[in-house]
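In this supplementary section we document a worked example of the pipeline. Step one takes a protein sequence of length 186 as its only input; no multiple sequence alignment statistics are reported here. Step two produces a three-dimensional model, which step three serialises into structure tokens for compact storage. The input and output of this example are shown verbatim.
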Amino acid sequence: MKVATKLFLLIALAVLLAGCSDLETTDQGGVILKVQFVNVPGSIGVNDQNEVLIPTIQIDSVVQNPTGGSSSVMDVLVDVYEVTFSRADTGTRTPPAFIYNRAATVPVGGTLTLSNFPIMGIEQMRSAPLSDLLFENGGVDRETGATNIRINATFTVFGRTVAGENVASTPRTETIEFITSSTIAQ
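The serialised model returned by step three reads:
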């Protein structure tokens, strides 16, 4: 299957799952994936760094039907992490999606812990609207006139069970404030 087709299918799946309101979803493999962010930074200085790292992301695999038993064929092989963005303030411009390919396994009934995990790279940090906050661009959001930008980062994990069933967590959203620099008194 071509990369473009896989990406289209992943995006279509993310759009379908975006309507869910809780922090978990089931798949045909009999597991529920729960995503939790730990120690999310409250504000990020756009001029201070080229990427955004979350200190800890925890992905738990819960057996959908505990009385039905479980086996290692329900382990989830995660291969794509996607972060999409929306505005949490009055602006409408957003950075491009961040797609990160990294193989990892969430054992059935277990936990995968990701440390210092990127949710934004240089492409997102140097694209509008965040690029407006760079010193050389004036340090002000051109759309809103504000010196800070609040962005919702929506994180989704994609993979498959060892048995071959597709798995996707329900998107988990965290809000982050972007400022010109954390080293300047606000």
